[in-house]
Design goal:
This protein has no helices and eleven strands. By secondary structure, the protein is mostly beta strands. The strands form two sheets. Strands 2, 4, 5, 6, 9, 10 and 11 form a seven-stranded mixed sheet that branches. The protein has a four-stranded antiparallel sheet with strand order 1-3-8-7, with no helix packed on it. The termini are far apart.
Length: about 120
């Protein structure tokens, strides 16, 4: 069973930054597309960004300029760097694995449990 593990969430003040990490313990993520999604309490899940198997990044318009997705550490970890965070960015952020990038969460066969990001003063 492939289990994705997210980390890096926490409490941050408005305007602050966070870097989220996504790993699959014991596996390299090269050759796969990794997407980041978020879900605020009582809201629908939103697609934030995706990095393709060719390392091509994709960003959803509302997040362009504020998030950067990257792959590093010998392809073991995928990062989501977030900046200029706002209270409305408060959500559970989760990563998911697929053969290709998609805005549809259902296309990602393997998913993590998520990490809580809270933006508050």
């Amino acid at each position: 069973q492939v289990q994705l593990v997210e980390s890096g969430g926490g409490l941050v003040q408005p305007g602050g930054s966070l870097r989220l990490s996504c790993e699959v313990p014991g596996y390299a993520l090269d050759g796969y597309s990794i997407g980041w999604f978020r879900q605020a309490s009582g809201e629908e899940r939103e697609w934030v960004a995706c990095i393709g198997s060719d390392d091509q990044p994709y960003y959803v318009d509302p997040f362009k300029g504020r998030v950067t997705i990257s792959r590093a550490n010998g392809e073991v970890t995928v990062y989501l760097q977030m900046s200029n965070l706002k209270p409305e960015d408060t959500a559970v952020y989760s990563c998911a694995l697929s053969d290709f990038c998609s805005s549809d969460y259902r296309n990602f066969g393997y998913r993590g449990q998520g990490t809580q990001v809270t933006v508050s003063s």
